[in-house]
Amino acid sequence: MFLASEGCTGPAPAYLSGLDSNSCAPRASDGADAEYMDSVNLATGAVQTVPNVKSFELAEDASAYVAFRLDAEKEKGKSESGEAGGAARFPKPAEFGSELVIRSLAGGQTATFADVTEYAWSKDGAHLAFAVHSKDHPDLDGAFLWTAADGLSSKPHALLAGPGVYKQLAWNEAGSELAFVSDQSDATAAAPVFRLYHAAANATAA
After folding, report:
1. What is the pTM of this model?
2. What would the pLDDT profile of 136-191 be if each residue is shown by its tens digit?
3. What is the dihedral of CA 50, 54, 59, 62, to 10 degrees?
4. Whether the Cβ atoms of residue 162 and residue 147 lie closer than 8 Å to each other
5. What confidence score (pLDDT) does residue 12 get?
6. What's the confidence (pLDDT) of residue 17?
7. I need a labelling partner for 10 at 20 to 30 A (CA). Which of 22, 49, 136, 196 fits?
């Protein structure tokens, strides 16, 4: 099974090796127009298309799951960034998240998580870290860790939670440690200060 999206921006990535030269690398960067994602079963040729995909990611050394984030504005059919009704809770509405989907490439089963702003696989695919920043439910904000061995029905656990912005998720090479920054301890300030947090992959908190 492989993945592709509309438009080429460079050579095909490693997981498309062996396909013809017309295979495209994904255009799925924040700020770009949302695109679709095709999932192709190489055994049967069946193609499944997922619309309004903002970005997707596979672990570098594993291919059991793909994670992708939907474009919230495209899903709703309109942008909410200009809505009336008072000032936003934070000055950058674009930082609020959208739905993250984790899909099994073998069976097609999925798990979904709301209001995700960014996500990052560990290199070995054992863990997926993601950040939540909710416009309507700030109490759900946080940095979370999902473990592949626990299966799609398992719940991620919070490394750090509370109203605020969580970003710049980064794994070490071994996939055993995660770092990120957050203004959680200073989120209500006019100019919040971001602090660096660290957690081991088997930790219960950062």
Report:
1. 0.76
2. 999 999 999 999 999 999 999 999 999 999 999 999 999 999 999 999 999 999 99
3. 10
4. no
5. 38
6. 38
7. 49
Instruction: Tell me how crowded residue 14 is: count the other CB atoms within 10 A of its CB.
Output: 8
Tokens 């050579």 label which residue?
11
Please tell me the number of Cα atoms within 13 Å of 18 on its side-chain side.
Answer: 4
Residue 134 half-sphere exposure, CB side, CA atoms within 13 Å?
16
User: Residue 173 and residue 15: Cα distance in Å, rounded?
Assistant: 19
Q: What share of the chain is helix, strand, coil (3-state, %, to 5)?
A: 10, 40, 50
Query: By three-state DSSP, how is residue 20 classified?
Result: coil
pLDDT at 74: 64
Query: Cα torsion at 24, 30, 35, 38 (round to 10°)?
Result: 50
Q: What beta strand segments (E) does the chain contain?
A: 2-5, 35-40, 47-58, 65-70, 98-104, 110-121, 127-132, 142-147, 157-161, 166-171, 177-182, 195-200
Residue 10 corresponds to which amino acid?
A: G
Find out whether 160 and 197 touch, Cβ atoms under 8 Å.
Answer: yes
Question: Environment class of residue 60 by beta-carbon count within 10 Å: exposed (0-12), middle (13-18) or buried (19+)?
Answer: middle
- Residue ranges of alpha helices (H) inside the chain are 72-76
d(CA 145, CA 179): 12
Please list, in sequence order, all residues whose beta carbon lies within 8 angstroms of the beta carbon of residue 6, skipping any fewer than 6 positions away: 24, 27, 35, 36
38-47, 49-58, 193-202: range with lowest mean pLDDT = 38-47
